[in-house]
Amino acid sequence: MPVHSEDSNANRWLHIGVSGLLSAVAIWFVLRKLDFQSLVEAIRHLDALSIILIVTCFTIGLLLRGMTCWIILGKKFTFADAFWAMNIGYLLNTIFPLRLGELGRAAVLVERTAGKSSFLEALAAIAAERFLDLLIGFSYLLFAIVFFIHNQTLKQIAVIGFLGLGIGLILIVFLAKKREQVLEWLSNRFSRSESFRQKLLPAVSNLLEGFRFFLQPARLALAFVILAVSWFLSMLEFNLLQRAILSQSEFWWPILVIPASAFTNALPAAPGGLGVFEAGSVGAYALVGVEKPAALAMALVVHAVQIIIPAILGMIALFISGQSLSALIGKALSFRRRKKAVE
Q1: Among 189, 245, 303, 323, which has the minimal tally of Cβ within 10 Å of its Cβ?
Q2: What would the pLDDT profile of 102-131 be if each residue is shown by its tens digit?
Q3: Residue 71's domain spans which residues?
Q4: Cα–chain-centroid distance for residue 126?
Q5: Mean pLDDT, residues 142-159
Q6: Listed residue (59, 41, 40, 53) closest to 241, CA to CA
Q7: Is pTM, for the whole model, over 0.90?
């Protein structure tokens, strides 16, 4: 038992180390040969109206994401449950490494239903939302690369990623549809393993139950459209910044920039995606010829809004629920240990 604990601690510190290293490399890339005076000048081009419009777009997009979560989670939850839990998750991801926000979010959702939903079922719904998010992001990225970027390597990467997600979606739908057969096959296959039957099999069952959302075309289509609109609003934020900061710009640039920054932000990095979001934005803008100071100025504004507003809403959600941040972290870590024990 002590050996297992030591291994878990070692893995945790390894993940933290890798995350910190990735953020450090990203920050180095962003700051390397940066003209700080040009960066300040770019930020000075912003006016109060632009900031208000950007905050408004982000807030509406956040509400739409909450609605998407609610649609995916199903009737056991209210919109308020989904929205406040989502912002608590964002708050935790902003403060702590190792993506604790997803576990904390699932813990809050389980408490909101008084145990009617299992932790793994809630986590599966969150995973379904993330998967749908990736699918929409790759769709936008593929559109931008195919129609506006003349780079074969990027086209191949985008097509491979999109096809991979498509195959993953087909697999998820198949497993959810054949849930009973899958569970029966696993039960027979590992019939001699009491540990598997008592721990892992119920976990798989709950996970597949959470994926049943993909078997409901109407809910899936509605969630897809709403989430796609929230992505569009994020692109509108960058368009507003382009108009304020750049002397000339193209409307389609954010269709490339937003997915690139979102995917790099999904990498294991320092809390809040420090550095990696900016690196993704600056790298994407470099492909269309935008100078680093202007690109970084736009990325810093958008990233600041993405961190500050959910953090405020997350703190409000904690106050409403009557939970302390430390207690919620403890629950998230407890669920992580339980998950590791199952594995």
Answers
A1: 189
A2: 888 888 888 877 767 778 778 888 888 888
A3: 2-342
A4: 9
A5: 81
A6: 53
A7: no
